[in-house]
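Re: the multi-chain job from yesterday

Posting the exact lines I submitted so nobody has to dig through the queue logs.
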Amino acid sequence: MVIFKFEMRQLRKSIIVWSLALSSAIFFMLPVYIKMITSAGYGMESFSDNTFFDSIGLNMEILNTPMGIYYFLTFFIMFACAINGFNKGLAIMTKEYKQNSADFLLTKPWSRGNVYVSKFSASAIEAIIVGVFYTVMSYVSMSRGTNDSFNLQTLILIAALITWVQLIFLTFGMFIGTIFPKIRATLPISTGVVFVSYATGSMSRIVGINYLRYLSPLHYFNGSEIITTASYEVKYIVVLIILMLLFLAAGYKIFCQKDIGLVS
Amino acid sequence: MSTNVIEIKNLSKFYGKHRGIEDVSFTVEEGEIFGFIGPNGAGKSTTIRTLLALIHPTSGSANIFNMDCVKEAHKIAKNVGYLPSEAYYYENMTVKELLKYSAELYQMDCNARIDELKERLKLDDTRKISDLSFGNKKKVGIVAALLHSPKLIILDEPTNGLDPLIKETFFEILKEENKKGAAILYSSHVLSEVQRICSKVAIIKEGRIINVQNMNELRKNGYKKVQLIVSEPIAKDYFKEDSVADYKVKGNQVTFIYRGEADKIIEKLYNLKIEDVFIEEPTLEEIFLHYYK
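And the result, structure tokens for all chains:
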């Protein structure tokens, strides 16, 4: 608990900044986009052949609805959250090496397993807090942007995507950070990893190679499907949870057995 | 009957093909101040890091308080204070925050002890870690290692970066901790420091323990680096071969390393025609080069 609290204190600023940034983004953008796209004569038909919307899991019919627009905006926010999640995972594991504080922490009366779980828990709580803020602000923003009624469950499912994506990339980042603890520039690596993952997932949807979609957690969710059925695709959620558990378990095992190099 | 606080048996650590330590064995008893000396790269830090489970041994075993160093590291750590040779901490914290966090990690109220140590070591706790000099970081390390009054103190090159006055205070603190019952493993490459404070010493070279002896024995065979400016040449066999090493003559200047009792060398020197004499402590490297081949 001591290490968890310490990590939470370290993440305090980040929680505030991310919660405010994402909430403000959806609060201001959603009503504007809804107004713009649902206005008569906006001409979304001209995008009907654009494969980009297919690649993010939206069809034109859905995109023309307020919930479709909300998913469209959330997808971009999800991209940022994926980078943040991976970066947090990498940074929280590599910072003890960067600052050479591993000797200090790992010679205290806490098992390595406890250190790993505390670090994960603090980062996961951050992702959940940011997600809750985003959900609340999404609800307020949606209520403000449309006079039509909307399905709250669908909104929550879409809003929760940013938390799912942060968590899976967080565990992946922690796993990589445990294997390569001496990584210094975490942000460029995080951006690169998420972009490659995004490109792979987009290609799978455009070209129709389905198994490639498993390589991109950003594409485990299909906007049109969530909006029409008010649920996730179960097989992808199962894969996502299995992957998260695998990354966590593997990272935990490696961290517990790893030699901590001498500072020189 | 004394109990072993540290028990190392045939401990080896290899990094791939590279040797870290090989077949290291020694014990540290309760209440003992145990010196661990060897030149840089001999394996002192590797041994200590294995004891602290920072690295995992290739073979052999290491126990502290009769618990396995790897399997029960976190239980052992409750009663161990460790000062690394290079003291690094979270740069964005102040000294006060770091020491508070350190005390929290031991789940103890250490405020009084922290205040006492801070005052004795003249440590300003309002400063950020990133603004501290190497010596001040070392002081933070000393407080962090001793704040929970551990039963075993492990020190790796502890006096690096400390000024002479603080060094004195540090030795006083260590002696007090020892009187209270703490055992100390003191690793250094400065022989005089080890001679001053330790009761027993293990000598390590190239990853292997080459000798474990009582400090009295080591003192008896104290090493001196002698430099003489003579007005008359010295006979070749004037000094016994087994007590003198690295004997060099350059003009009227004679240098050698002496190992033996002090009164005997004084007696020898007394009978020579000497213009000047310098007697100093040889470096550990010099001793190792000539006596621990």
